[in-house]
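Provenance and format

Records in this collection were gathered into a single text stream. Each protein contributes a sequence line and a token line. The two records reproduced below are adjacent in the stream.
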Amino acid sequence: MKNFLVSLVIIALFISLSDISFAGKVSSTAAKPMQTKMETLVGKIININTAKNEITIKEKNGEVDFFKVDSKEISSLKRNEWVKVTL
């Protein structure tokens, strides 16, 4: 009977230690911040739509992109102006 009780205590100790180590792994993984990658593109403004607050930019490689712009800033932009956009 004494051996049975000692075995139960040892099994309970191993189970509790494994639960603690598992919980520690979950919390350390969840604490990592999400990594973000910033992208920058350079292009020429080919169109300005003040009604939609939108500009169209053509990159050096020929790709055309559309961007929303703050209504206060869109008035300072000019067609055929080179701009740098950070996403």
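Adjacent record:
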Amino acid sequence: MTFEAPSGNISTGVEFFSYMNSTISNWFMPGIITAIFFIAFIKLIYSTNSAARAFGSASFICMILSVLFRVINLVSTPFMTIFIILTGISIVWIHIENAGGSPQ
């Protein structure tokens, strides 16, 4: 499998990640953010002993990263939207968990 050589100088981090992203058909940064999500979720689930809080924290971290990477055009809008939706779901999940059960 051959890849195109970068045209011009790659002198900044954004140019490097843009080149890496274009080399792997725009899956480099989404893959990095997804890996960060799973690593953060597994780490936080053991430190907080709450799946809802771990999911919420990991979703929020990745939402912030995906918004920042969307601004510099390293991820697509649908990928960013997925983490915004996951963060919203986690807010509801944490609220339900903190409510203490079903209403009577």
